[in-house]
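Subject: Sanity check before I submit

Could someone independently write out the structure tokens for this chain? I want to compare against mine line by line before I put it in a report. The sequence has 292 residues.
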Amino acid sequence: MKGHTITRALSALGLATVAVAVSLAQTQLAFWDFNESEPLNETAMLAADGGVFASQAQIAINLANIVYNNNGTGFRGSPLDPGTDGRNWGLQTTDYPAQGQDSGLAGIVVSVPTTGYRNIVVKFDVRWSNTSSKFLAVEYTTDGGANWTRARVLEARRGDRWHGDTDANGGYGALVELDLSGDSAVNNNAQFAFRVVTIFDPNTGTQYTAAQSGSNYTTRSTLRYDLIEVQGEAASSGPEGDVNGDGCVDDADLLVVLFNFGNTGGQGDVNNDNIVDDADLLVVLFNFGAGC
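---
Independent answer below. Compare away.
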């Protein structure tokens, strides 16, 4: 039904045969693969390996610790990481809170500015040990950590497995991905950060459950991370109504709004009211031809 509605709308606007790109390419804002030549070097391991904000991006940890030395070598990284010159390391963390304490507070915090970018996407892989918390919360902040919004809860299928492991091997076969395009407060924000923290079992609300069935949660459990990445689309600096950021309000911008019509924010939400609707279409139409 939605496709028919869009087709009729395009025909009414004389755009049914227009062929244009309706989305902008994602830009890497910060990226860590941890494949350093010296995996025991804390400074090198925590430094971002790429992205336009690599020099400003930071990884920290709260109520736990990062471990670098694995008997003289690093800790093996995600199965989805192709490696660098034969190296594939991950970031190992341990020393989590005691049973029944500090739910939602212990874990890694990744700070990456999104200044000049919108439609932010977060990706990473995580590995649970047998005795780590089975449940993790992924949260983000737009005010430097004063307030956090819970976006997703992760559940281990079994211990000693990466999220990116295949289904048959006890994983989900893909990176964890968080699409934050629906929250305009994340856009163009120098105080953006996300965190991954251990939480009590939602079924009990008072205790951590171990990732591996039959195991008991312990403070010496470990969580390991790899392929941490934040992406975004360059925000338009063109005239109002320039949805795709090419400096011209034209058919391409109309198509972006129409193809996303009815969505809760994200691309096509020209007026940032978290809904793509008639108001956004009118902004484009009233400014049609500007900058062209």
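---
OP: Matches mine. For the report I'm noting this point. The two ends are 33 Å apart (CA to CA).
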